[in-house]
Design brief:
This protein is mainly alpha-helical. The chain has one domain. It contains 10 helices and 2 strands; from the N terminus they run H-H-E-H-H-H-H-H-H-E-H-H.
Length: 145
């Protein structure tokens, strides 16, 4: 068998670099974020200062080292799924969150300078719960089917 360098093999082979990366649904991305936060529930994470008072241009670029979004960005699975950085704007876009939802997870006004990973996970899990139909919708489905 002939020895070939990596460059030679890459020129010959038709390799799909994106193959191992699969598209994750919004729920899967949020569930993965919860799992990551719950791995170290007592970890203190930085909050973002007064997100509700920041202009949109500043808000989308807002970030902090060791924030709940940084925990997600540290994960190779979420980065492979499309999380580009740990800014507020990228977290909002990638996880499909509203400003209000993201505000509840990481704003300074709720928790002070830091929030525990367990508390952040609790709020993200609450967002996941919004995907389910409410109590009355489920009861109506029981009686109409």
């Amino acid at each position: 068998m002939k020895h070939q360098t990596l460059e030679q093999l890459q020129n010959i082979a038709d390799i799909d670099q994106a193959y191992p990366h699969r598209v994750m649904s919004r729920s899967e991305r949020l569930e993965r974020w919860v799992e990551l936060l719950e791995m170290s529930p007592h970890r203190r994470l930085a909050t973002l200062y007064q997100t509700e008072h920041q202009p949109t241009s500043v808000l989308s670029l807002l970030r902090s080292d060791n924030s709940p979004i940084s925990v997600a960005f540290e994960d190779p699975i979420l980065r492979a799924a499309g999380l580009e950085d740990d800014t507020y704007g990228q977290g909002k876009r990638f996880f499909g969150l509203t400003d209000g939802e993201l505000h509840n997870v990481l704003c300074y006004c709720h928790f002070g300078a830091t929030v525990s990973a367990a508390t952040a996970a609790h709020y993200v899990r609450g967002i996941l719960g919004m995907d389910r139909p409410g109590l009355f919708a489920r009861l109506r489905a029981l009686f109409t089917s």
